[in-house]
Amino acid sequence: MEADELLVLVAGGDQKAFEDLYALVSGPVFGLVRRVVRDPAQSEEVAQEVLLELWRSAPRFDPGRGSALSWILTLAHRRAVDRVRSARAAGEREQREARRAHHPAFDQVAEEVEAGLEREWVRRCLDRLTALQRQSVTLAYYDGYTYREVAERLALPLGTVKTRMRDGLTRLRECLGGVA
Hints:
By secondary structure, this protein is an all-alpha fold. It has eight helices and no strands. It is rod-shaped and about 105 Å long. Belongs to the sigma-70 factor family. ECF subfamily.
């Protein structure tokens, strides 16, 4: 028997005809659904839903409007597209909710205040250095010069600059409480 004849019998409640129809169309239904849905587990679920719907809605089949296989594959395609759309909509809802619920991991105002306080603390500690130490540290750490370039800029021997830097950084570390 062909799908058209079997579907007419299924519409009348014939379970044996449904078994035969199932065997005939389950492969094409799953293949179509798999191409649309892509996920194997979801595809199996959708194909099962389509075949269950086929049993329930067989009386609605009109052989005068087309073949049974076309009607069944149309049901499968619609159900697969619905599943994809539903999954996409759920994903978009989750993304919107995640964006809405996203709170920064820090309080920007508090961070800016804290950074300002730290800068002020460093300035006070720099003011406690000798002028030569402060000048060497500032050139190296704020202006980005190497020790050798600091020595050239200040017209001092490299060893003198290194000593000033070491002493200045030690005093800064002590002033900052071991943080620096």
